[in-house]
């Protein structure tokens, strides 16, 4: 394992929950790492730093990148939303977007996988099958997402302090959240035409968990029952994506600490509209769990290796 500011420290001194584990390696700097006996890498660096590091890595390595650096195919769009030039356009062309259940075959043969963001995961999993089946209109898609505070990152920020968030909630990134182009890219691919969405994320006073509530117009002749059946058919054989029984509202509490995505669809009280609710753990299915799921596929391992645990309760 490599690190920047924590190089030279033991893993258990940085992450205390590993204190009972024996013979863990000391963290080394990225430049000092020996990759000769390494088969695969999870790259968990901030956006903008990943590009140069991955370019310098040995070509035999399989890489799952958890930053945003390779999620957007259009590097000019990356530069617009992330405010810096993209320095690895050749790798961008090689990278496969790793929304596992929807890109499994591409992930299987990839060397570099761009692990999706948490919000895009919770939104695309229910929406993409419905758009591909022409069951929802492409206009007026409204998405309201709520995340635990870990969704805003680990760095110290005043607005993320306990005293700032406890007992309340806060919208952030209004109209300019960096996951917007990633969401629209995936939905546009599904529709084979440009799709735009209204998306607003919120932080709520819990450490982990994410819910996306999606409001859509039904396509002409489509019903909420059609949407339910399409999601049922799309995910009936998937281990980690579960369509709940009709009428059951997905809860973040029920997927906490797991790689599961629970979803359901409901008729809106306004005729011709439907409401889709999707929940994930933003740190697992929205990040590390999906990364491991992707690497399992890349390496030819059973897809659920290291992921077959139940959600935490209570």
TrEMBL record:
GO biological process annotation, one example: L-arginine biosynthetic process
Top EC class for this record: oxidoreductase
Gene3D superfamilies: Dihydrodipicolinate Reductase, domain 2 (3.30.360.10), NAD(P)-binding Rossmann-like Domain (3.40.50.720)
Active-site residues, as the UniProt record annotates them: 118
InterPro entries recorded: AGPR (IPR050085), AGPR_AS (IPR023013), AGPR_dimerisation_dom (IPR058924), AGPR_type-1 (IPR000706), NAD(P)-bd_dom_sf (IPR036291), Semialdehyde_DH_NAD-bd (IPR000534)
GO MF annotation list: N-acetyl-gamma-glutamyl-phosphate reductase activity; NAD binding; NADP+ binding
The keyword Amino-acid biosynthesis is assigned to this record: yes
Pfam families: Semialdhyde_dh, Semialdhyde_dhC_1
Semialdehyde dehydrogenase NAD-binding domain span: 1-110
Pathway per the UniProt entry: Amino-acid biosynthesis; L-arginine biosynthesis; N(2)-acetyl-L-ornithine from L-glutamate: step 3/4
EC numbers: 1.2.1.38
NCBIfam families: argC
Name used for this protein in its record: Probable N-acetyl-gamma-glutamyl-phosphate reductase, chloroplastic
């Amino acid at each position: 394992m490599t690190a920047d500011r924590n190089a030279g420290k033991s893993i258990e001194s940085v992450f205390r929950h590993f204190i009972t584990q024996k013979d863990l390696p000391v963290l080394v700097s990225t430049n000092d790492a020996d990759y000769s006996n390494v088969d695969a890498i999870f790259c968990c660096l901030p956006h903008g730093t990943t590009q140069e590091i991955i370019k310098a890595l040995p070509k035999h390595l399989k890489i799952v990148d958890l930053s945003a650096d390779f999620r957007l195919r259009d590097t000019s769009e990356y530069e617009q939303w992330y405010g810096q030039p993209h320095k690895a356009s050749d790798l961008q062309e090689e990278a496969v977007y790793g929304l596992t259940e929807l890109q499994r075959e591409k992930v299987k043969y990839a060397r570099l996988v761009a692990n999706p963001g948490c919000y895009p995961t919770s939104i695309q999993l229910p929406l993409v099958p419905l758009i591909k089946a022409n069951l929802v209109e492409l206009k007026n898609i409204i998405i309201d997402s709520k995340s635990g505070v870990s969704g805003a990152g680990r760095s110290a920020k005043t607005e993320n302090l306990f005293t700032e968030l406890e007992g309340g909630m806060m919208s952030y990134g209004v109209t300019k959240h960096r996951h917007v182009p990633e969401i629209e890219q995936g939905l546009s691919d599904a529709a084979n035409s440009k799709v735009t969405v209204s998306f607003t994320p919120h932080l709520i006073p819990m450490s982990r968990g994410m819910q996306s509530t999606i409001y859509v117009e039904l396509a002409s002749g489509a019903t909420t029952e059609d949407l339910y059946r399409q999601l049922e058919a799309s995910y009936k054989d998937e281990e980690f994506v579960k369509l709940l029984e009709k009428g059951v509202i997905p809860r973040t509490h029920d997927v906490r600490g797991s790689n599961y995505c629970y979803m359901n669809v409901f008729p809106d009280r306004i005729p011709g509209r439907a409401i889709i609710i999707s929940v994930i753990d933003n740190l697992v299915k929205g990040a590390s769990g999906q990364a491991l799921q992707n690497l399992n596929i890349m390496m030819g391992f059973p897809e659920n290796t290291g992921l077959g645990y139940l959600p935490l309760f209570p």
